[in-house]
């Protein structure tokens, strides 16, 4: 039996202690801990890495604080369009959805795509049709409405600007303030199987059906028992161009890098060279974990069967 481990993130970016109230800080920590415990309970009871990451993501999607599921941001049209992906490192099976609406838990739909569609990636209306066919829980628009997200969108909806995630500030500060709202989870179970999952509401005020790296296998999400499981959060365009998640796996497979070394190479060198801001979480088949980011902060948490337990928000001071 190998060390089992779960790592989660709730987004990265300009997350500074001076911008955070004690109440909000506590709420984020409680939200991360609830998701961590939900996923870890699956592993502790002998469950699979896939079920563990799905369980953790569902809790994050149901929490209005995070830009995924219920807390998804508004698009240019004033609606929510959500993306998600999940991958099984044992079989290399994967499922992903993009631009879905009214789906309570996009990660549940992505899992259905993986298991029951004979496809990997579904988008838009077709993905919603499949959700209905599979009996995936839908919610009305009101479920996804939060005054906080609405005010944030209202501040920039008449401009061509988009915002990377939550802020309460004025327009000029809004555009300077960068938070990449995504949630993710990676796990290694007691059998040494790895899984990764990512879910997001994307960018506030996004246009043209924009899709980031989160649902793209190899860019924002990747899992392979031979190497690692990775979930990314950051400026999606750069992570797409860097094929960031798969690049970590390649550095481990072809260059013999450790998980930590490979993630450091991608986050602090390759992405920095492209002005790519954000971070990623990772796990390998031995239960080693890593949480690496080049932004000011990253909502993150980890728990392993050899006693590690950590919840963090800010960067190293």
Automatic annotation (TrEMBL):
<dbReference type="GO" id="GO:0008233">
    <property type="term" value="F:peptidase activity"/>
</dbReference>
<protein>
    <recommendedName>
        <fullName>Isoaspartyl peptidase</fullName>
    </recommendedName>
</protein>
<keyword id="KW-0068">Autocatalytic cleavage</keyword>
<dbReference type="GO" id="GO:0016811">
    <property type="term" value="F:hydrolase activity, acting on carbon-nitrogen (but not peptide) bonds, in linear amides"/>
</dbReference>
<feature type="binding site">
    <location>
        <begin position="210"/>
        <end position="213"/>
    </location>
    <ligand>
        <name>substrate</name>
    </ligand>
</feature>
<keyword id="KW-0645">Protease</keyword>
<dbReference type="InterPro" id="IPR000246">
    <property type="entry name" value="Peptidase_T2"/>
</dbReference>
<dbReference type="GO" id="GO:0006508">
    <property type="term" value="P:proteolysis"/>
</dbReference>
<feature type="site" description="Cleavage; by autolysis">
    <location>
        <begin position="181"/>
        <end position="182"/>
    </location>
</feature>
<dbReference type="Pfam" id="PF01112">
    <property type="entry name" value="Asparaginase_2"/>
</dbReference>
<dbReference type="InterPro" id="IPR029055">
    <property type="entry name" value="Ntn_hydrolases_N"/>
</dbReference>
<keyword id="KW-0378">Hydrolase</keyword>
<feature type="binding site">
    <location>
        <begin position="233"/>
        <end position="236"/>
    </location>
    <ligand>
        <name>substrate</name>
    </ligand>
</feature>
<feature type="active site" description="Nucleophile">
    <location>
        <position position="182"/>
    </location>
</feature>
């Amino acid at each position: 039996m190998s060390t089992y481990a779960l790592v989660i993130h709730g987004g990265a970016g300009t997350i500074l202690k001076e911008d955070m109230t004690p109440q909000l800080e506590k709420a984020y920590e409680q939200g991360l801990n609830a998701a961590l415990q939900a996923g870890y309970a699956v592993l502790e009871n002998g469950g699979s890495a896939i079920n563990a990451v799905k369980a953790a993501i569902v809790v994050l999607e149901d929490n209005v604080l995070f830009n995924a599921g219920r807390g998804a941001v508004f698009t240019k049209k004033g609606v929510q369009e959500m993306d998600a992906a999940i991958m099984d490192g044992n079989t290399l099976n994967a499922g992903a959805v993009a631009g879905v609406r009214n789906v309570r838990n996009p990660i549940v739909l992505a899992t259905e795509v993986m298991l029951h569609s004979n496809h990997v990636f579904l988008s838009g209306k077709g993905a919603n049709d499949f959700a209905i066919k599979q009996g995936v829980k839908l919610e009305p628009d009101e479920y996804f409405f939060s005054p906080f997200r609405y005010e944030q969108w209202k501040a920039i909806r008449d401009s061509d600007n988009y915002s990377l995630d939550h802020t309460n500030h004025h327009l000029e500060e809004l555009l300077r303030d960068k938070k990449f709202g995504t949630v993710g989870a990676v796990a290694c179970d007691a059998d040494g199987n790895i899984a990764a999952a990512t879910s997001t509401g994307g960018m506030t005020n996004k246009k043209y059906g924009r899709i980031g790296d989160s649902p793209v296998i190899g860019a924002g999400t990747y899992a392979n028992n031979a190497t690692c499981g990775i979930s990314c959060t950051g400026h999606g365009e750069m992570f797409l161009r860097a094929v960031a998640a798969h690049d970590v796996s390649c550095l481990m497979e072809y260059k013999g890098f450790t998980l930590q070394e490979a993630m450091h190479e991608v986050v602090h060198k390759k992405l920095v060279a492209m002005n790519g801001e954000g971070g990623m979480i990772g796990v390998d088949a031995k239960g080693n974990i890593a949480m690496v980011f080049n932004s000011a902060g990253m909502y993150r948490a980890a728990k392993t069967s050899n006693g590690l337990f950590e919840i963090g928000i800010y960067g190293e001071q």
